[in-house]
Every structure is written in structure tokens, then in C-alpha cells.
Amino acid sequence: MKLSRKEKNSYWMPYTDNEWFKKRPKLLDSANGMYYTTNSGKKILDAVAGLWCVNAGHCREKIVKAVQDQVQKMDYGLSFQMGHKASFEFAEKLTSILPKTIDSVFFTNSGSEAVDTALKIALAYFHCQGKGEKKKLIGRARGYHGSGFGGTSVGGIVANRNQFSNLLNGVIHLPHTHIPEKNSFSWGQPKYGKEKAEALIDIINFHGSENIAAVIVEPVAGSTGVLVPPIGYLEKLREICNKNNILLIFDEVITGFGRVGDSFASERFKVIPDMITMAKGITNATVPMGAVGVNARIYEMLIKNKKEKIELFHGYTYSGHPLACAAGLATLEVYQEEKLFERAKGLEKYFGNKAHSLSKLNMVKDIRNIGLVAGVELEARDKKNKTLGRDIFEECFKNGVMVRFTGNTIALSPPLIINKKQIDLVFDVLSHSIKRCF
Ligand SMILES: Cc1ncc(COP(=O)(O)O)c(C=O)c1O
Question: Which residues contact 127 (CB under 8 A, 6 or more apart)?
């Protein structure tokens, strides 16, 4: 089953070197549990849960059935001035696994939309109190918040910003928390770097808290190569935001739904933001969906102070799509029935130790881990040859394991159903592939 020239040209793949891919396409054909099967029949162990999203493993029967039943009953139900039961039910179920103060959920279709929605809610929250000047947004270097204009603007991965010359005004970035000279090979949260949060005080002193609406960070930065927050860092951000009436948004698109061994990273680190953005594991990636969880203060303020009949002029045709809600409800049941968040926590030590066992390879520069996430950062192979991460990815794929790469960092984030034997295999193949590619 080959791709024709016309097919190759027709599909412009996202975040991909299209020329490279189309020379030797790797095509997936089916998926089940921990495995993909390629179109040539090869089984691939999925060590990244798709794109950090298939937390319960692929093609789970309960979720598939829920979507099939729903599509037969009602394919689509509009969500502007109309509703359907599953969206209310799913929102309520979500709040039961979100931190206690997060009481309401706004549905989107992706993580990027969730981020843009949260930023707009922050602006609307101050606007409705007559504080429209409180509008600056603070992101962080190396942060990833999706591909919308809002998310790209607060995002801090330079390559993702360079091509777009007209991002949002009034965005300031905190420094990232990566301090390899002090923290490399930390197991879990690194010891040093809490003081990086104090840059927020400098920003406030310079710009004025009366001009700042919100701070958005990933509790664990994923796409930049797995940066775990230093001990005390998130607590400090929370404290400074509280003192200055600035909303704190945690982007939990990756860290939600058991990835870090609790329902959400906010629970794991015991730091509760004002808003949480989520997506990916929300439906086990079966149907695209994102959401923003907000605390009662924000929801009630907007309702109380509305000047028009509608309190938030924002939404999507597919907000609360019936298929996504059906998938989401079934997904939560699978997580709960199989205790997958607890399972992730139980496997953390084994997985983390296996990841850190790679430190004996002298080309490994750093290893970072938390929950069922690990980043293995490698020395540059040589300055001219920039494809090390990709070469390792290809070598792993050849050997039956799917990993992810960003620059010279290999990221692992398997479905939470992974077992110890499969963890062993992932790290054996990765170790072999690293050695092969140097
Ligand atoms: C932290 C974070 N926020 C937002 C997004 C964007 O999500 P989506 O690709 O669903 O738009 C991602 C995607 O990886 C992410 O990791």
C-alpha cells in the first residue's frame, strides 16, 4: 500500500519535515492497546501514547462502543443557546476529578483552543470588573501552548514563533526553569530553581500588577523536552499571583489525566491554579476535544457582571460535541475502573529508574522524569549534523518502538496501561538506538 505522488502532494503534514517524510513514508494502519500496526504489518510498541494523549491505550472497547452508540443516536447537537445532556453530565464528571475549587468547564476541540479560551476568559474576567487595562499576559520561555495566535504568543519555543511576525502585543515571558549545571539527572522534581519564579516580581514591578491579567505555564513543560518544576517553584508563582490579583493558568494538556501519577499535576504538586486547560487524555484522543476548567470566582464574576444577555462572547461550533462527550464519559469510566492514575503512580519508580539507568551512556547529558514521563537529553553528535533526535526516533521505530524527539531530547510518555516488561523493552531499544546513532 504505497502513496501516490498526488496523494503525497495533497496532504500537508503538521509540524513535519514534509520532504523527509514523503521520501520514505511511515504509515500506521491500526492500533490496539499498547501497539500500533503499520501498513506493512509491523507491530510498534507505543511509548508516547500517540502524542501524549492515548492514556488508556488504543481502541478501548468501551470508548469505541460509546462513540458508535452516540453517532447512531445523535451525530451532532448545537451548543449555542441549546444543549444536550451528555455535555452537562461530562462537565460534572470532569469537575469531580479536577481540583475542588475548579467548578465549571468550558468545552473546546483542542488544547490550542483551550489555551486561547483561557486567555480570553482572563481578559473578560477583568474587563467585566471595569479593569480592562489589566490585559498583559505572561508566558514562559520554552513553554508550549499550542498553535493558535494566543498560544503561540504566550508560548516560548523560539522555532514555533519565528515565522509569525504579528503575534499578540502585551505578552511577557518568564525565564524557563532549566538549570542543567545544578539539576541534571535529578530524579523527579529538581532541587534548584524555585527562585526563577521571582522573575514574576520583576515583571510586576516593571509593568504594574494593574496591567497584568494572567500567567500561564505548563506545570511540567512537555514539548520542549520534559522540564519538571523545581521544588517550591509553582508554589511561589501561586503566592505572587495571589498577592497581585493575577490569574494563574496551568496548561495541563499533557499533564492531565494521570500522566504525572495524579488526576492532574495541580493535585500532584498541591498548587491549585484559577484555570486549568486540558485536552488529549480527556477523550483518550478518540474524538478531538479540549476544555478549560475555571474556579467559581471567575464563572460567577462573569455571570454577575454581564452587561449583555451573553456573559462570554466566545465558543465553537463543536463545543461539547456529542461524540466527544460520549468518548469523554467512557474514558473517565475506564480511568476509574482500571485505576489508571494510581497505576501510573505505582509504576513511576520502576519507569523512572529505568530511564535513569541510561545515565551510564556517556552521550547522555541529562535525564528528567516524573510520573510516566521521561526526557533523555543527548550531547550533540556534531555541529553540522542536526538530525540526531530524528535518527534515534527512526532507529527505535525500526526496532518496534515509537518514541518522540525534540531537538536532541527523546521524550517518553507511554499509555498508563504499560507493563514492566514493555517498559524494559522501551529502554532496551532506546539504549541500543542511542548507541547506534552515535
Ligand atoms: C501543554 C500543551 N498545550 C497545548 C497544546 C495544544 O494542543 P492541541 O495540539 O490539541 O491543540 C499542547 C499540545 O501538545 C500542549 O502540550
Answer: none
Q: Among 298, 290, 314, which Cα is nearest to 146's? A: 290
Place of cell 532496551: 428
Residue 386: pLDDT band with limits 50, 70, 90: confident
Is 10 exposed, middle or buried (CB count within 10 Å of its CB: 0-12, 13-18, 19+)?
exposed
d(CA 105, CA 293): 4
Structural domain 64-337, CATH architecture: 3-Layer(aba) Sandwich (3.40)
Average pLDDT, the chain: 97
CA 287–ligand 1 middle distance (angstroms): 15
Kindly report the CATH number that applies to the domain delimited by 5-56+341-437: 3.90.1150.10
> Amino acid letter at 368?
R
| 154 C-alpha to ligand 1 centroid (Å) | 13
Residue at grid coordinates 465549571: 104
* Mutational pocket test of ligand 1: of 13, 15, 112, 154, the residue with most ligand atoms within 8 Å of the beta carbon: 112
**Cβ-Cβ contacts under 8 Å for 175 (sequence gap 6 or more):** 140, 141, 196, 199
Q: What share of the chain is helix, strand, coil (3-state, %, to 5)?
A: 40, 20, 40
pLDDT digits (tens, 9 = 90+) for 110-132: 999 999 999 999 999 999 999 99
Atom of ligand 1 nearest to the CA of 290: 10
Would you kindly state where each structural domain of the chain is located, as residue ranges?
A: 5-56+341-437, 64-337
Pocket of ligand 1 (CB under 6 A): 110-112, 115, 144-146, 218, 222-223, 251, 253-254, 279, 290
